[in-house]
Design goal:
By secondary structure, this protein is of the alpha/beta class. The protein folds into two domains: 14-184, P-loop containing nucleotide triphosphate hydrolases (Rossmann fold, 3-Layer(aba) Sandwich), CATH 3.40.50.300; 191-291, STAS domain (Transcription Regulator spoIIAA, 2-Layer Sandwich), CATH 3.30.750. Helix content is 37%, strand content 23%. It has nine helices and eleven strands. The strands form two sheets. The chain has a six-stranded parallel sheet with strand order 3-2-4-5-1-6, with helices on both faces. Strand 10, helix 9 and strand 11 (286-289) form a beta-alpha-beta unit. The longest helix is centred in the N-terminal third of the chain and has 17 residues, at 25-41. The protein is elongated and about 65 Å long.
């Protein structure tokens, strides 16, 4: 069969952290093959972290579509491994450990003469009862600034719609600045979503931060507390509502930040100001600023 790898000028996802949704094996393969080929064409190392997919199927799919995956594996340019050996290598999923793994993986790829590391990671493990899986949203938020703005890395997070609950999927995909694949569901509107800011370290909350969205607010607060950025901003201009519990999470996160600098709030809604008037102790680590 004629190899499909050729010139792929203008690839939209280069050097980006992208959420890729798919609903069938054909859609999965349609994302897999050009991504791998682009890496081969550019002299990059390509890695695939399989979870629900048998690693042998990854290799067979590439071969059936004309990609000489076996040769790439032998020369070390293609590595097909599993989530158990990467995301879940420890006793629990640990965002800090995974962030450290990215640094080591990029260093190894560069040391082997590759100009970039290109990775596909299947994220279906986030739907299973795995210790630490509840920190997946925190991880997706943090790595935009802590990994992708620091390292020569291109990574696509593969989200299989057949394996994840729609509400959880919407929140996780919204944590990426770029998405590809299946069109958004017409009813996709999480009660609260959070995404990294494109122009500075920080996050944007959108929607309603109340009882129903407690886990999302807690994940955003955990990302704020753990971020290594010296100065960090929380954009609330797209927030419709925030309750006392969510604000308390944010305030406590600000107090745990390693840099000790205040958390900058942009676009705080009037309801938040009223809460701070009633509970001024929550504002100790917060600083309201203009854009």
């Amino acid at each position: 069969m004629h190899a499909v790898c050729g010139s792929h000028d203008g690839e939209a996802a280069a050097d980006r952290h992208v959420a890729v949704e798919y609903s069938s094996d054909d859609e999965w393969a349609a994302h897999l093959v050009p991504f791998v080929c682009a890496g081969f064409d550019r002299g990059e190392q390509v890695q695939y972290f399989a979870d629900a997919t048998d690693p042998r199927l990854v290799m067979r799919t590439l071969a059936e579509r004309g990609v000489d995956a076996d040769t790439a594996v032998r020369r070390g340019q293609l590595v097909v491994t599993t989530a158990d050996e990467t995301y879940l290598a420890g006793a629990r999923f640990d965002p800090d450990a995974m962030i450290g793994l990215w640094g080591r993986a990029v260093e190894t790829a560069l040391g082997q003469g590759y100009g970039n590391l290109r990775v596909i990671g299947e994220m279906s493990w986030g739907a299973r009862h795995i210790t630490g899986a509840e920190r997946l949203l925190e991880y997706e938020l943090r790595i935009h600034h802590e990994v992708f703005e620091q390292l020569p890395l291109t990574a696509w997070c593969f989200y299989d719609r057949r394996l994840l609950a729609p509400e959880a999927l919407d929140v996780l995909v919204s944590a990426h600045l770029t998405r590809a694949g299946a069109a958004p569901r017409p009813d996709a509107r999480p009660g609260l979503s959070v995404a990294p800011l494109a122009d500075r370290p920080g996050f944007r909350l959108s929607g309603s931060a109340g009882y129903e969205s407690r886990r999302v607010a807690a994940s955003a607060s955990a990302a704020l507390a753990a971020s290594t950025a010296k100065d960090i901003t929380l954009d609330l201009s797209s927030l419709d509502h925030i309750d006392v519990a969510a604000l308390a999470d944010i305030a406590h996160a600000a107090g745990r930040r390693p840099s000790g600098t205040p958390l900058r709030l942009v676009g705080a809604p009037p309801a938040l100001r009223r809460i701070l008037e009633l509970f001024p102790e929550l504002g100790a680590g917060l600083q309201e600023v203009g854009r």
